[in-house]
Amino acid sequence: MQQLLTLLFLLIGSNLTVNTYAQDTIVVRKDPRLDVLTQKQMIIHKINGKMASNGQFKGFRLQVLNTKNRDEAFKTKADLLTRFPDQKSYVIFQSPYFKIRFGNFLKKEEAEEYRKILSQIYPQSIYVITDLIDYTLKEEDLNELETTKQP
């Protein structure tokens, strides 16, 4: 009887050691949906980096005019609206000056192109300034964000 118990304990003990050696290999299979989720999170991060806390984007505008004459400021704004109906122009009053700002540009290069066009129409200096802009993301903007890889 005692030999039978000893044999039983030896068999159970050897079986336990075999099981512990078999458990030291772990195979991790990555879910392919994680790549999609990571890509979407990267795009959201890039968009949030270009946005201010109030939902507006950090971008560029052109300062076309800086004057004390209110009538001249509104005349320039009306002229800009008729010449460039696809772009917005803004009148900003900072006492005693009226400033006319033009456009909502996400990229500085785009603002520079319009600056060259406007400098032919208006003889005074036109400046590219950073500002919070009203901008709606277009499909091409999202495609551009998807194709650029984050380091």
Helix content: 40-55%
Give me the number of helical elements: 5
Largest sheet: 4 strands, antiparallel
How much beta, percentage-wise? 15-25%
Strands ordered across the widest β-sheet: 2-3-1-4
Number of β-strand runs = 4
**Overall mean pLDDT score?**
82
Global shape? rod-shaped
Structural class: alpha+beta
Query: What is the CA-atom radius of gyration, in angstroms?
Result: 33 Å
Distance between the termini: 70 Å
Which structural traits does this protein have?
alpha+beta; four-stranded antiparallel β-sheet; 5 helices; rod-shaped; 151 residues
Question: What would your notes on this structure say?
Answer:
The chain is built from 5 helices and 4 strands; from the N terminus they run H-H-E-H-E-E-H-E-H. It is an alpha+beta fold and 151 residues long. The protein has a domain at 65-142. Strands 2-3-1-4 form a 4-stranded antiparallel beta sheet, with helices on one face. Strand 2 (89-94) and strand 3 (97-105) form a beta hairpin. The radius of gyration is 33 Å and the shape is rod-shaped. The mean pLDDT is 82.
Task: Give a concise summary.
The chain is α+β, with helices and mostly antiparallel strands and 151 residues long. Helices cover 50% and strands 22% of the residues. The protein has a domain at 65-142.
Topology, element by element:
Blueprint: H1 2-22, H2 33-49, E1 57-67, H3 70-83, E2 89-94, E3 97-105, H4 108-121, E4 127-133, H5 139-147
Antiparallel strand pairs: 1-3, 1-4, 2-3
